[in-house]
Amino acid sequence: MNAVLSGLGLVKKYGSATALGGIDVEVARRESVAIMGPSGSGKSTLLHALAGIIRPDSGQVLLGGERIDQWSENRLSELRRRRFGFVFQAGQLLPELPAEENAALPLMLEGTPRRHAVARARRWFAPLGLDGLEQRRPGQLSGGQAQRVAIARALVSEPDVVFADEPTGALDQATSEEVIAVLTQVTREQGASLVMVTHDPDVAARCDRVLHVRDGRIGEPTQPAPGRR
Ligand SMILES: Nc1ncnc2c1ncn2[C@@H]1O[C@H](COP(=O)(O)OP(=O)(O)OP(=O)(O)O)[C@@H](O)[C@H]1O
Ligand SMILES: [Mg+2]
Q1: How far apart (Å, rounded) are the C-alpha atoms in residues 153 and 174?
Q2: Which residues are 66's β-sheet partners?
Q3: pLDDT at residue 219 greater than cutoff 90
Q4: How many structural domains comprise the chain?
Q5: For residue 228, is it within any domain?
Q6: Would 21 disulfide with which of 4, 37, 143, 216, CB 3.0-4.6 Å?
């Protein structure tokens, strides 16, 4: 496999609790991988370790062959801003900013002038089904629309990898399916890989591959059910 991102032998302990018990995972370019498993099994910890948010106690995290687990905090935070995109469950938009500025935020934080950043962010609105909502504040958006703005924000810096932790956890089933359809499609078109934690088997089935985590370990990868892609 031509892996863009991999974790090798990842171990993470919190006191006597083992969140990751030696996990190997590889993510190919443009591949979407769902991470499923019971609550407390280590899904978020795995995502955070791969994204350079937490450092594993042992093991390696490789991005394009480089050992990012050894990088400094400063270098990691720059990496997360420039090459990774993030979508979390909810509540990640700034309530006082219009949708287009929320989506443009990662570029503005990098020093891109507001006008240019907003222009780049706006390009994502049509593909994400957000046409006409550019000026709305988050409080004036539905839950599904707000999550699509969060997806625009995750994609605006044209990342290599998008990480999503239960991105539809706060949405109803129909809205959740719409959001995931657009997330997987737009991420693939952008040429990015997607690593997504979800409890929802229908959401997971939209991904190329499903990893099952249990007690900090990976079970047998299973294929999505036929006809779901
Ligand atoms: N910062 C932390 N400090 C202490 N323990 C932690 C910390 N983060 C996670 N843990 C523990 O590590 C284990 C794995 O947690 P993790 O958040 O990865 O689970 P999860 O699979 O994402 O669960 P959920 O589906 O509920 O989000 C749990 O036992 C949790 O209590
Ligand atoms: Mg979690």
Answers
A1: 22
A2: 63
A3: no
A4: 1
A5: no
A6: 216
